[in-house]
TrEMBL record:
BP GO terms, sorted: tRNA methylation
The protein's name: tRNA (guanine(10)-N(2))-dimethyltransferase
Organism: Methanococcus maripaludis
CDD domains linked: AdoMet_MTases, THUMP_AdoMetMT
Main localization category: cytoplasm
Highest taxon of the lineage: Archaea
Keywords: Cytoplasm, Methyltransferase, RNA-binding, S-adenosyl-L-methionine, Transferase, tRNA processing, tRNA-binding
Length: 350
């Protein structure tokens, strides 16, 4: 199957109001895509020429992107009339060449974006499944299909697509911080860490710096994306823990250097590595410092920005908004628990 020059649909996590779509926009930048985005709650359609391979890469790379689809048909919801809409939908479906082979199995799944949608999911799945079976001679398998045909229903349209990729749910569950070889309380969860790395727009092979690396959460996620890694922490025990964690995930080959270092001395650190500039900074500074000595923290960030290439990104979380002498392109609030809210900053160096 090679569907190209068609619309792509992305089913996003509903865990946060803004971060999933922000991450998807970052992925669009990373893969140099163009086109209009149409958002329907947690479902987003990208109207752009895009290959299956890029859709797969985007879903695999994302933290909050649950599924990626190639959309090959759309039909209108006619005057909110269910019978007329479905009659037109099934007539259109009978003319389609479904990307399902005779020797494959398939399932049809309906996603209604509105809770009060009047459409009957089981009826659509059953009838469309019958059409596909008749046209392709493929068998239905509800438990383990080779292909999943997805029907997404918004207020005004019904989109038909094929599921190209699903996010690896088990990875984020099985790699929570307390399950790692070295754990310290206060770590950012891997899904959020992956999202923040993506917000920095770093690409495979580029250098990511975390000057407050702690147990290595951001470096782990950046390493899985193929980035080269530089980290530091003022606490030697954290440095050793980060190295242990990266080694456990077989990411040591991605590491340029991780060592004990005061973030104020980041320029000297890079000079020792014979590296002039890096491609992205993703970090989570110690909250005790950033609250009690905010002025010191701003000074440290200025030094960090000095080693960042022009037009690249500094992404960090903090317990309050921090004003830097940079272009703040994105800003998000994430409530961790009753007494802690993380403010996610995305700065771009011009």
């Amino acid at each position: 199957m090679n569907l190209r020059n068609t619309k792509a649909g992305f089913l996003l996590s509903a865990e946060h109001e803004k971060l999933p779509i922000a991450e998807l926009n970052a992925l669009i930048d990373i893969f140099s895509l163009e086109g209009n985005l149409n958002c329907f709650k947690n479902y987003v359609i990208l109207d752009s020429p895009i290959s299956e391979e890029i859709i797969k890469k985007m879903v695999k790379r994302g933290g909050y992107t649950n599924e990626g689809h190639v959309i090959f048909s759309e039909s209108p919801v006619i005057n909110h009339n269910v019978d007329e809409t479905l009659d037109n939908f099934f007539k259109t479906s009978e003319t389609l060449d479904f990307p399902v082979e005779e020797n494959e199995t398939f399932a049809v799944r309906v996603l209604k974006l509105e809770k009060e949608s009047p459409f009957n999911s089981m009826e659509i799945e059953r009838k469309l499944g019958g059409i596909i079976k008749k046209k392709t001679s493929a068998e239905v398998s509800l438990k383990n299909p080779s292909k999943t045909v997805k029907v997404v229903i918004s207020n005004d349209k019904m989109y038909t697509g094929i599921v190209i990729e699903k996010r690896d749910v088990e990875y984020f569950q099985n790699n929570r911080p307390h399950l790692r070889a070295y754990f310290h309380p206060g770590c950012i969860m891997p899904k959020l860490a992956r999202c923040l790395v993506n917000l920095s727009r770093v690409k495979e092979g580029e250098i990511v710096l975390d000057p407050f690396c702690g147990t290595g959460g951001f470096l782990i996620e950046a390493g899985f994306l193929g980035c080269r890694l530089i980290g530091s922490d003022i606490d030697e025990q954290m440095v050793n823990g980060a190295l242990l964690n990266l080694n456990t995930y077989d990411l040591s080959k991605q590491v340029i250097s991780i060592k004990q270092n005061d973030a104020k001395n980041v320029s000297k650190y890079l000079e020792e590595l014979e590296i002039e500039k890096i491609d992205g900074v993703v970090t989570d500074p110690p909250y005790g410092i950033s609250t009690s000595k905010k002025g010191d923290m701003l000074e440290i960030f200025e030094k960090i920005v000095d080693v960042l290439k022009n037009n690249d990104y500094l992404v960090f979380a903090a317990p309050n908004k921090m004003e830097l002498n940079l272009n703040l392109v994105e800003f998000y609030e994430m409530r961790v628990h009753k007494s802690l809210t993380r403010y996610i900053h995305v700065y771009r160096k011009n």
